[in-house]
Design a protein that fits this description.
There is one protein chain. By secondary structure, this protein is of the alpha/beta class. It folds into two domains: about 100 residues, 3-Layer(aba) Sandwich (Rossmann fold); about 120 residues. Helices cover about 50% and strands about 10% of the residues. The chain is globular and about 50 Å long.
């Protein structure tokens, strides 16, 4: 694939959009900066492998990914050309992994990858929702995306019984599954984006533990406030969700 690099500075972080056509670069960059500003306000990134975050579009790739085995920050997406809202959906998810430096836990083998995947799914919901409410050329397409492409994130049937039914599957998940999408929607509906951002960042300091109940308890103690992602998951597991 020919390399088309589009670069711009945001605070101290540089975005490089690689593999994008000349026609889609401006809107893709706009979507990137809107999404980054939501999840990293005032340039509040974690310690990164590089000051440049490269986002490479490869429509032949099987799935988007935050690349763990690179010497620099690399996100791969596979959206169709000029599908700016699909791009936002994908890059928001991968920003969730970058925000907590999931590469440091790769390959994760403690059975708790589902937690990070559910949070990253919530990141996608937040990004598209905020875009749909923000004046500008991306708004109307984002509103359509909310109505017609986020249906898998409808969470109305998520409760304690539902959670108990799906927890065994969560424990073996290594990607965002259909049930985890519902859990992502549940998180996004119950908690503010700022709370989820902070809770996600707290994962970096949380030790891995195959006992997910202990893992959630340790994580909750690292989060601020009574209404947090780990507290929400604990409530579901204890039958109060």
């Amino acid at each position: 694939m020919a390399s088309n690099v589009y670069e711009a500075m945001m605070t101290e972080v540089t975005f490089e959009l690689d593999g994008f056509s000349e026609q889609e670069k401006p809107m893709s960059y706009m979507a990137t900066t809107m999404t980054a500003n939501l999840f990293f306000p005032n340039g509040n990134y974690p310690p990164l492998r590089s000051t440049a975050i490269r986002i490479t579009r490869d429509p032949t790739a099987s799935t988007p990914v935050y690349v763990a085995n690179a010497s620099f920050e690399l996100i791969k997406v596979n959206h169709a050309e000029s599908a700016f809202w699909q791009f936002t959906y994908q890059v928001a998810h991968e920003f969730g992994h970058l925000a907590t430096r999931s590469d440091k836990r790769h390959p994760r083998q403690d059975g708790n990858m589902w937690i990070e995947e559910a949070i990253c799914g919530a990141y996608s919901v937040y990004a598209i929702r905020v875009m749909s409410e923000t004046e500008g050329p991306l708004r109307w397409g984002a509103q359509d995306y909310v109505q017609n492409h986020l249906t898998d994130y409808r969470w109305e049937d998520v409760d304690a019984n539902w959670f108990a039914q799906h927890l065994p599957g969560f424990r073996t998940a290594t990607k965002l599954t259909a049930p985890l999408m519902k859990l992502s929607g549940y998180i996004a509906a119950r908690l503010s984006v700022d709370q989820v951002i902070a809770d996600n960042r707290a994962i970096m300091q949380n030790p891995l533990n195959e006992d997910h109940s202990v893992y959630l308890s340790d994580w909750r103690k690292r989060c601020k406030g009574p209404c947090t992602v780990p507290a929400l998951l604990e409530s579901l597991e204890r039958g109060r969700g």
